[in-house]
Write a structure and sequence with these properties.
The chain is of the alpha/beta class. It has eight helices and 15 strands. The strands form three sheets. The protein has a seven-stranded mixed β-sheet with strand order 3-2-1-4-5-6-7, with helices on both faces. Strands 9-8-12-13-14-15 form a six-stranded parallel β-sheet, with helices on both faces. A two-stranded antiparallel ribbon has the order 10-11. β4, α2 and β5 form a beta-alpha-beta unit. The structure holds ribose-5-phosphate. The site of ribose-5-phosphate has 14 residues, from β12 and α6.
């Protein structure tokens, strides 16, 4: 694609350089430094006037820092006369798209307004937690899906026996259904409740006919691993065969991976949307397919 430039700063270097290579476009690494008091400072040099810039930044780890960096970079690029397209595979605050507990801020709405205020023309993200969240962002935005790429990886690697796709909660049922269609498998959703203060996850036991079946748990995010751990224990009680977890954003905080291994998981298949040890599936081709439609 001609006339495009890819910009990124250090934490998203792999994604930025990878995308630039796919597009055959030049790239710039934005300089980002931190003052002794902890404040960040962004510096972008060069004549950017009239350029269409794909600004790549995944907002994990350190979501607050990554968000602020992104805002500062976007502001500077817009000020210099560039057209800024935000490419944000992991969008911080996407889970706060509604009030869970009285008095909470719908933070995604605030983030959306900030994105607009720094001149971003369009936002592209990946498997946003809930598509309703897109409506809170007052600029054109689109959520690309990593599910086809994840399914392709799974199909190549496993010869699944009577596969059953499971969403750990009702909110993720559309995602699991979409995945099961690609696999041509059955699908069900569990009924997960989370205590919003303690974070404790409870999954309602229902009659699960999973005996000897290969299970594929489909989720957008694995954070502490608590959700998948609870689901595995329920499924193992039902004497299932292998349990594989596929997810777009494997944050795998702390001992999450160990937790899942002790619960008996066969494999976690994640993407490179954020840096993690389970990033087996490359999201860049899926993002690039969408970017090509931007003109
Ligand atoms: C929640 O609704 C999400 O889809 C994930 O299920 C959740 O973020 C996973 O978090 P954790 O791994 O901490 O249980």
């Amino acid at each position: 694609m001609t006339g495009w430039l890819v910009a990124y700063c250090d934490p998203s270097r792999n994604l930025g350089t990878g995308l630039a290579k796919l597009m055959g476009a030049p790239s710039i690494e934005v300089q980002s430094k931190v003052f002794p008091d902890g404040e960040g400072c962004i510096r972008i040099q060069g004549d950017l006037y009239g350029n269409k810039v794909l600004l790549v930044q995944s907002m994990y780890p350190d979501p607050d820092k990554r968000l602020l960096e992104f805002l500062l970079m976007s502001h500077k690029l817009s000020e210099e006369g560039a057209e800024v397209y935000g490419i944000v595979p992991y969008l911080a605050y996407a889970r706060q798209h509604r009030v869970h507990n009285e008095g909470e801020v719908v933070s995604l709405g605030v983030v959306g307004h900030l994105l607009r205020s720094v001149g971003i023309k369009r936002l592209v993200t990946l498997d946003i937690h809930n598509v309703e969240g897109l409506g809170l962002i007052p600029i054109p935005c689109y959520s690309v899906s990593a599910l086809p790429s994840l399914a392709e990886y799974l199909k190549k690697k496993y010869d699944l026996h009577e596969p059953l796709c499971i969403s750990p909660d009702l909110g993720g049922s559309t995602r699991a259904e979409a995945f099961s269609k690609i696999l041509q498998a059955d699908t069900i959703s569990l009924d997960k409740q989370r205590d919003n203060s303690s974070g404790e996850v409870v999954i309602d036991k229902k009659d699960l006919d999973v005996k000897d079946r290969d299970i594929v748990i489909v989720d957008d995010i694995i954070a502490t691993g608590g959700t998948i751990q609870k689901a595995i224990s329920l499924l193992k009680d039902g004497c299932c065969n292998r349990v594989i977890a596929v997810c777009t954003h494997s944050l795998l905080i702390g001992d999450a991976l160990k937790k899942l291994e002790s619960a008996g998981i066969t494999e976690v298949i994640g993407t490179n949307s954020v840096p993690n040890p389970m990033s087996k599936v490359d999201i860049l081709p899926a993002l690039y397919s969408h970017i090509k439609t931007l003109g």
